[in-house]
Design brief:
391 residues, binds adenosine-3'-5'-diphosphate, 50% helix, 10% strand, 5-stranded parallel beta sheet, alpha/beta, globular
Length: 391
C-alpha cells in the first residue's frame, strides 16, 4: 500500500517537473524572440538614418568617422539617439516597460554604455573613443513666431538637417512655465552631441512682452528665427483655426471691426493684433541685435522651401544639407511636402491642421485691413531691412 502511494507521489512530482520544464522553455523562447525583435528594430533604424548622407550602412558611417569627417559623426550620433528612442518605443509597445521609464534611464546612464548594452560590437567603441556623450542642452536657436505664418513647416524642414535636433512640441517655457526654471526647460530638450544645434519652437514667444528679456537672460547669443506672412492672410488663418474649434464662432468681418462697420479695426482682437509685427519686433530689438534675428518669408517658404531653408542653414552656420531634393510639391494639398523626415521614411505632408481652406471674406473688409496694416508693414520693412512686398 505504501508502495502504491509512493509511486503515485512520484508520478505526480515528475508531471509537475515536466510542466515546469515546458513553462521554462516557453519563457526562454519568448524572451529570446523579444530581444531579437528589439535588436532588429535598432539595426533598421540605424540604417535608415544614413539617408541624409547617402550611406547604406552604419559601418560606412563609422569608417568615414575615422577620417574625422565631423558631419558624419553628427549623423552617427543622430542615428544612435534614434536607436535609444526605438528601444523605448518597442519596450512600451510590448508592455514590458513604459517609454517614460526607459527615457528616464537614458537620461541617467552614459549614452555610450547604453549603446554597448544593445550591441556590444567593437564598432561602437569608436563612438566612445570620439567622446560622443549626448546630453540635453538649453536651446541655441528659437523659432519665436509668428503664429500661423508657417512655423511648423520651418521646424519640420530645418530638422531634416542631421546637425539640428528639436523639441517635438511647443514647450511654452518663456511665456507659461518660466517659474519652473531652466532645469525644467533643459529636460524638455532632445539629446545632442557636440556640434549639434538644439532648437525649440513656440510661436507665442514673439508677442509675449516678458519673453525677450527672459531669453536674453538665458543666453545673450540665442539665435532667433521668425517666419512672417502677409498679416491679413495670417489673421484669416488664425481665425480659421479658432473657428475650427468653436462651432458658433461669429464671422471674421464681425470680429475684425468695431461697431459692425469696416471703419474701425478692432486692434484688441488677437488675430488682428498679432499682425502688427513692428510693434513686437521693437521690443525684441531692445535685447537682441538684428544680426541675431533671421526673418523667413512665409510666402516663399511655400513657393520655394529649399531657398528659405538654405538661408536658415547659412544663418545657423550649417552645411547646406537640406536642398530641393528633400521636397516635392503635392498638388492635392497645394503645399510642399517631404520625401522623408526624421520621423517617417515615406513621402508625407504636414498634418491636416496645416494648409486649411480659408472661408470667403468680404473683399471690402480685406481692403480695409490692408490699409490698416500698410504703415505698420512699412515700419517692419524699415526695421528688418527687408521689403516683403505684402499687398
Ligand atoms: P493655413 O493652414 O492657414 O494655410 P503655423 O505652422 O505657424 O501654424 O502656420 C500654418 C501655416 O503654415 C498654414 O496656414 C500654411 O499656409 C503654412 N504652410 C507653410 N508651408 C506649409 C506646408 N508645407 N504645408 C502646410 N502648410 C504650410
Amino acid at each position: 500500500m505504501y508502495g502504491s502511494i509512493w509511486c503515485h507521489n512520484l508520478n505526480l512530482s515528475s508531471r509537475n517537473l515536466a510542466i515546469a520544464l515546458v513553462v521554462c522553455v516557453t519563457l526562454v523562447y519568448f524572451s529570446y524572440s523579444f530581444n531579437a525583435c528589439i535588436l532588429a528594430s535598432i539595426s533598421r533604424s540605424l540604417q535608415e538614418q544614413s539617408f541624409f548622407h547617402n550611406q547604406s550602412t552604419l559601418s560606412n558611417l563609422l569608417m568615414l568617422q575615422v577620417r574625422n569627417d565631423s558631419d558624419t559623426v553628427a549623423t552617427v550620433a543622430t542615428a544612435a539617439s534614434t536607436a535609444i528612442d526605438v528601444v523605448a518605443t518597442n519596450a512600451s509597445a510590448n508592455g514590458v516597460s513604459t517609454a517614460t521609464n526607459l527615457s528616464t534611464t537614458a537620461s541617467t546612464i552614459d549614452f555610450s554604455a547604453g549603446l554597448a548594452s544593445v550591441d556590444g560590437a567593437p564598432k561602437y567603441q569608436m563612438l566612445r573613443q570620439q567622446g560622443l556623450r549626448p546630453s540635453r542642452h538649453l536651446p541655441d536657436t528659437l523659432i519665436i513666431g509668428v503664429k500661423k505664418s508657417g512655423t511648423r513647416a520651418l521646424l519640420e524642414f530645418i530638422r531634416l538637417h542631421p546637425d539640428v535636433r528639436a523639441a517635438g512640441s511647443e514647450v511654452h517655457f518663456f511665456d507659461r512655465h518660466y517659474q519652473r526654471g531652466l532645469r525644467w526647460y533643459r529636460h524638455h530638450m532632445p539629446y545632442t552631441i557636440e556640434g549639434q544645434i538644439t532648437m525649440e519652437k513656440t510661436p507665442s514667444y514673439f508677442v509675449t512682452k516678458e519673453v525677450p528679456q527672459r531669453v536674453y537672460h538665458m543666453n545673450t547669443a540665442t539665435k532667433l528665427l521668425i517666419v512672417v506672412r502677409d498679416p491679413v492672410t495670417r489673421a484669416i488663418s488664425d481665425y480659421t483655426q479658432a473657428a475650427s474649434k468653436k462651432a458658433d464662432m461669429k464671422r471674421f468681418e464681425q470680429l475684425a471691426f468695431v461697431n459692425g462697420s469696416y471703419s474701425v479695426v478692432d486692434t484688441n482682437w488677437g488675430p488682428v493684433k498679432i499682425g502688427v509685427y513692428a510693434r513686437f519686433l521693437e521690443h525684441w530689438l531692445l535685447y537682441f541685435p538684428l544680426s541675431q534675428l533671421l526673418f523667413i518669408s512665409g510666402e516663399r517658404l511655400i513657393m520655394d522651401p529649399a531657398y528659405e531653408i538654405g538661408r536658415v542653414q547659412d544663418f545657423l552656420g550649417l552645411k547646406r544639407v537640406v536642398t530641393e531634393k528633400h521636397f516635392y510639391f503635392n498638388a492635392t494639398k497645394g503645399f510642399p511636402c517631404l520625401f522623408k523626415s526624421e520621423a517617417r521614411s515615406t513621402p508625407h505632408c504636414l498634418g491636416k491642421t496645416k494648409g486649411r481652406n480659408h472661408p470667403h471674406i468680404d473683399t471690402n473688409a480685406i481692403d480695409r485691413l490692408r490699409e490698416f496694416y500698410r504703415p505698420f508693414n512699412n515700419k517692419f520693412y524699415q526695421l528688418t531691412g527687408i521689403n516683403f512686398a505684402w499687398p
